[in-house]
């Protein structure tokens, strides 16, 4: 029972991290810029005097912290390093290294969390 729960949790974490790391990085970046535009508000143009939205470069100048995609990637690589150094008896290590049993669905195989970590290096 505990092993099944561990596998389910590991698969869920794997799917969530894959969703963030694969094709939706552009969506995460768009969401981050949308939130930053809301926080910093519009800017008055010096020439025309009209209000306008901030451009992406202006947002990055105002907000000096690294973007969210880079932060997620660096933290996942750091977490993989911690798990790799854990003993083989630890549940987290077994979830990361272990292989799931059963058949995969038809179609192109989804990208694995492990593949994303390799791409981030």
User: How would you classify the helix and strand content by structural class?
Assistant: mainly alpha
Characterize the overall form.
Answer: elongated
Our estimate of the beta-strand percent is under 5%
Our count of domains comes out at: 1
Quaternary form: single chain
First-residue to last-residue Cα separation: 36 Å
> Helical percent range?
55-70%
- If you compute it from the alpha carbons, what radius of gyration comes out, rounded to the nearest whole angstrom? 20 Å
Report the total helices: 6
Largest sheet: 2 strands, antiparallel
Low-confidence stretches: 1-14
Order of helices and strands: HHEEHHHH
Q: Give the strand order, joined by hyphens, for the main sheet.
A: 1-2
| Topology, number of strands | 2
Mean pLDDT: 76
Descriptive overview:
- This protein has 121 residues and is mostly helical.
- It has one domain.
- The chain has helices spanning 2-21, 25-40, 56-62, 68-85, 91-97, 113-120, and strands at 43-44, 51-52.
- It has a two-stranded antiparallel sheet with strand order 1-2.
- Strand 1 and strand 2 form a beta hairpin.
- The radius of gyration is 20 Å and the shape is elongated.
- The protein starts with a helix and ends with a helix.
- Residues 1-14 have low confidence and may be disordered.
